Amino acid sequence: MRNVKVAGIGLLKVKEYWDRSIQDLFAETSLKAIKDAGVESIDKVYVSNMSAALMQDQLNTAALMSDAIGMPGISASRVEAGSASGGVAFHEAVQAVASGYSDTVLVTGVEKMSDILPDVVTTALAMAEEQEYTAYTGVTKTGIAAMIHRLYLDRYAEASEVCMMAVKSHEHAVGCKHAQYPFKMSIERAMSSPMEANPIHMMECAGIGDGAAAIVLVPADNAGVEVAGSAIATDYTSIAQRLDPMAMDAIRKAADRAYKMAGITAKKVDLAEVHDDFTINGVLGVEGLGLAKDGEGAKLVSTEEVDKAGKIPINTFGGLKARGNPLGATGIYQVAEVALQLRGDAGDHQVEGAKYGVAQNSGGMASICAVNVLRRAKK
Amino acid sequence: MSVPRYWRNEIPRYRLVGEECTVCGNKYFPARHVCSCGSTDFKAYKLTETGEVVTWTVIKNSPIGFEKYTPYVVGLIELGDGIRIMSQIVDVDPTDVSAGLKVEACFRKIKEDGKTGILQYGYKFRPIVA
To answer: Which residues pair with A314 in a beta bridge?
Structure first.
């Protein structure tokens, strides 16, 4: 198996692009990544997208996007794994290069949520849950997270400690050019926002946005940023089926596999991007990655340890909450951000001396999770 | 919702019927294809219709089709036989729901598929009146 290098990155600011199509966003960010990589040609394209079928009435996006970037004829696949589509697509792209099957691979995530009304977004998000016995109850994605959030509060933490996940993400987004909400939000503001699904406040939820992020992968050459480990794990789709509804086994299993492949433990991780579509999910991501013990994630994210000068910087560009959560693109943003850190291009967000960084991307209520570990190459 | 998609779930949804593994006795709702013990041999199992609320939330922004029921409570309920089930909890003020609340299954309308579509029915749970 070959080592794989992150050769190029393209990021668009997450916002509402009323005047542009998913092809437009896909093409712009992909061409940026190809230019950044300085490669002559691409062998294979992976398109990560969750909901174009509902949001744009569009399927067959692998062909559509190959056309959009002026590469008809190229091999292309579309990857969908709910909001973990990006992390899973990245994993597939890594496998393509590692195996020797492809030499230069483009993996781009795109989602355009502003093309539909908010109640349709709620329905789209619930489509990542099992339909016949879960979505059937009228539960929403926020509702499922809220049930887990309540258990966490009963067992481990104060509501304000969990809420700090959102406050920290916003703090870290300040100055980030590709972030949707690059401004601070106080804990008082978050805790006094209306209940979205009790006990989750509105300001503890990632918003709705359009975005696209792209990465070019090539065989490693002992320079730049390499993929150290990449893994996916799944779980029972319904929290009702899990022995402990709060366990989030998919995150733990994916992290264990990715760390093992990288030859490290959680202690060696220098920074992390976690899937904080809701504050509770960010906290459980931190715990699932082994960066805090069970029940101590909320306390950790309440401290300066997760800031860029802290022991374990988390969501260094704002996470899903403040950078934005354009579903199928989110996982690519996360990996790209870790790569920016490790190659020293993180600007005001730079974490000094980082060698290993990890991105954790969940779909459904972590019924699937992709964990990707990057490292700075030795040279 | 197509008619077959609705019709094929009538027995589990109307009668709360799941499955029991004939090898290890594990019980499931809804039915599964493979037991955690590896067996694929199941028999029908009628769920206990009473249980306790484990956790819950209040849905204010609903998916399409549930708008007129908002705000409504959805909870995770542990039935007497240990099976956990997700369900709406009805006939209760949302502020009166708590962990450990004793509830029983009831047969209710779930939603309407527009003006001409199927009226969907199934289980919800409600507090047991002592």
So the answer is: A272
Q: Domain count of chain B? A: 1
The contacts of residue A47 (CB under 8 Å, 6+ apart) are: A26, A61, A62, A65, A76, A77, A78, A79, A89, A108, A110
- Average pLDDT of the segment spanning A205-225: 98
Give yes or no for residue B130 having a pLDDT over 80. Answer: no
pLDDT at A379 > cutoff 70: no
Return the residue in B15, B52, B57 with the most chain A beta carbons within 10 A, the one to mutate for interface testing: B57
Instruction: Please name each of the domains of chain A with its CATH number.
Output: 4-117+209-217 (3.40.47.10)
Which of A51, A119, A133 would you mutate first to test chain B, the one with the most B CBs within 10 A? A133
pLDDT of residue A378: 83
Burial pattern A346-374, b for ≥16 Cβ within 10 A else e, equals beebebeebbbbbbbbbbbbbbbbbbbbb
Across the interface, of A118, A138, A196, the residue whose CB is closest to B74 is A138
* Contact yes or no for A146 and B63 at CB 8 A: no
Secondary structure class of A321 (helix, strand, coil):
helix
Identify residue A196 by its one-letter amino acid code: E
Domain housing B63: 3-127
**Number of other CB atoms surrounding residue B20 within 10 Å:** 18
Place of tokens 């199927």: B118
Of B5, B57, B63, the CB nearest to A150: B57
Predicted pLDDT of residue B75: 98
Tokens found for residue A68: 């959009």
- Residue whose entry in the numeric block shows the structure tokens 């597939």: A92
Average pLDDT, chain A: 97
Q: How many CB atoms lie within 10 A of CB A379?
A: 7
Q: Is the ipTM of this complex over 0.90?
A: yes
Question: CB distance from B45 to chain A under 8 Å?
Answer: no
Q: Does the structure show a pLDDT above 90 at A81?
A: yes
Q: Could you tell me which of A146, A186, A147 has the C-alpha nearest to residue A166? A: A186
**Strand positions, DSSP E, chain A:** 4-11, 44-48, 75-79, 105-112, 195-197, 200-201, 210-219, 225-234, 271-273, 356-363, 368-376
Q: B88 forms bridges with which residues in the sheet?
A: B74
Nearest-angstrom CA–CA distance, A109 and A211 = 8
Nearest to A237 by CA among A146, A127, A331, A143: A127
Hey, is A126 helix, strand or coil? Answer: helix
Give pLDDT, residue A119.
87
pLDDT digits 0-9 by tens, A27-51 = 999 999 999 999 999 999 999 999 9
Torsion angle of C-alpha atoms A346, A348, A349, A351, degrees rounded to 10: 80
